[in-house]
Every structure is written in structure tokens, then in C-alpha cells.
Amino acid sequence: xxxxxxxxxxxxxxxxxxxxxxxxxxxxxxxxxxxxxxxxxxxxxxxxxxxxxxxxxxxxxxxxxxxxxxxxxxxxxxxxxxxxxxxxxxxxxxxxxxxxxxxxxxxxxxxxxxxxxxxxxxxxxxxxxxxxxxxxxxxxxxxxxxxxxxxxxxxxxxxxxxxxxxxxxxxxxxxxxxxxxxxxxxxxxxxxxxxxxxxxxxxxxxxxxxxxxxxxxxxxxxxxxxxxxxxxxxxxxxxxxxxxxxxxxxxxxxxxxxxxxxxxxxxxxxxxxxxxxxxxxxxxxxxxxxxxxxxxxxxxxxxxxxxxxxxxxxxxxxxxxxxxxxxxxxxxxxxxxxxxxxxxxxxxxxxxxxxxxxxxxxxxxxxxxxxxxxxxxxxxxxxxxxxxxxxxxxxxxxxxxxxxxxxxxxxxxxxxxxxx
Length: 420
What we know:
This is Acyl-CoA desaturase. Helices cover about 60% and strands about 0% of the residues. By secondary structure, the chain is mainly alpha-helical.
């Protein structure tokens, strides 16, 4: 089902893997050595832009003209998305801690959503990034709600997961809050500690509700209902967008899953390789990259989660070149294509395995070390060539089966005519 031998699956030699690791370490050093005033200026510009956009959007929502109000709603959704992803998510990773600025530090930044930043940081930075796509250790694999690999046994509740997925997308900030809360509860055993954890998230939820649905509507006077509807709409739009970005980085075809045994003696080379095989990018220009918090570069983000997101475009050029050099796949497709592949997996795995065609070792959403056993002579220098040859072999096999089926149909027709 999932991959157990990561190095073997990659078709890399130990020497190749060590050299690849050295080159990835060199990328980190090069970026760290060149961090400076231009990077600091970037994050300060983003903060000013986000705050100005939020202010002007909230003022626009008060306008009597419907077109301007809708611009305000969209602007507020964009401002909240920028705050959550380009700011909250990336600052929470410690990408700007090197500045020693108390305002822009992972330990002090509290993002504009119902989840508690500190709770999310442990769940995301440790449980997810350290154990990316390791079954039973990474709770981001379907968020314990969706079935996204056949390694998760089918249950009756999965039949409703297309609807669950839509509901999850619309309420994504609440899902993140519960995700962080559950992670903190797993960390502590005592009742008192767990009560403190629940109290923290309850206080944060109360503060967000008061800000968005009490203070701002009251300031609007007679347009309270208008502001309430606009804020709720902006929140839902923000949730839908952030959910789409996240599923594009983790659920499309080719984002591999791994068994707990695969990390038993894991060192940095294997960790690097697991990040490269377990994540996916989507193609984006500068505007789409910014709108996604630069999480269109999910591969680079998982390799270097604490490097500034604004550096990911230049890092991506070097990572892609390394994938070409070592014959490894670089999983990147257009945004809508990745989104469709992720949704297709969610739809398909709502069904029991007996209704699925591909094997559990060689399906688009689920692969194992055994996928190359079914067809001989697929080994190449690296994984990309091996996968390409495997696809060619499977296409040839399908063509041969189709040819035999057509010959069988033609033979039956000939026999039928001759009997007449």
C-alpha cells in the first residue's frame, strides 16, 4: 500500500542520495547567507499592504453602491487570505525569526482566525512537517476526516466524504482550530492541562467572533446586517481558497504516502527525499504565488520550511534542476489540474476498494514499493524514468487487451454470420 523503502523506491544509489543532500544543504546555506534588508523590506511591505487592504475593504462594505460593496467583500477575503497564508502561516514557521523583530516573530504573531497560533505551530510544524505523509503520525493525511489513500480502511462515513469535503472547505478556519486543539490534547495527559488547552481556543474563538461579528457591525450603525453578511461571505471565501491551496499541495496524484517503518532509521537524506516525493506544487506566476502564500511551492516549502517564502521562486529553479539531474519527478501542474486531481481522489475513495479498478499498490493516489514488480524492465537511473517506463508498459498492456477484445468481437460476428 504505502511506501516502505523510500530510497529503493526513488531508484537512487546511496552515492546519488548523499550528493543530492549536499546540494540541497548548499541551497539552504546560500539563501541564509544572503538574507538581509531587501527580505525585511518585503515582509514589512506585505504587512502594510494587508492592513491597508483590510481597512479599505471594510470601508467599501459600508458603501450604498452594490458594486463597491462586493469589491469590499472580495478585498476583505483577499486581505484575510494574505494574513493567514503569506503572513500567519509563514511567520509561524519562523521564516522571519532571523530579523529578531518582536512583531514579526513565530512566538508572538497571532493570526486573524479562530485557531490558536501556538496550538497550530506544534501540530503543523512538528507533526506534519517532521512526519510528512507518514501513516499514523501525520494527521494532515485527510485530517482524520477524508479518505485520501487506500491505506485508510473504508468506513461507511466515507461514502459522504464529497459532502464532508465541501463543508470542510467552507469552514476551514474552524477545522484548523480543532486540528490544533486535538494536537495539544494529544500532548498532555492531565485533565488540568487539557482544560487549559480548551480554554485557550475558547478565548480565541470568542475574541474573533466579537471582532468580526460584534464590534465592526456595531460601528456600522444602521448597516449592521450588511456588514455581518459581508464579513461572513469574506470568511467563507477565504476558507474555500486556503482549503484549495492546501489540498493542491498534498492530495493530487503523485503525492506519495509512507509507512511508519519507512522512517525507522531515517536520516536527513531520507527526510529530504520524503518531502520531495510526498508533496506537490502548482504552476503559478507572481500574483498567484503571492495569493497562495507562496504555497504553490509546496515542495520547496517542505524542504526548507523556515526559509522566507519570498525566496521560494528562486529556490524552485534550483530544486527543479536537481530533479532533472537525479531523474526524480517534480510534481507540478496547473492549479485547476491539481485541484481536480485532489477532488477526484476524494470522490473516488468515497467508494469501497472493491469498486475501484487500479491496484492498491499502483493507483494514482496510492503507490507502494511493489508497483514496479508488476512490469519488468522499468528501472531507470531515477524514479522519473522508472515511472515513465511503467506508464508506457501499462499503456501497451491496455492497448493489447483492447486489441484482443476487438478481435474477439470480430470473431464472434464472423461466426454468427457464417451460422446464418
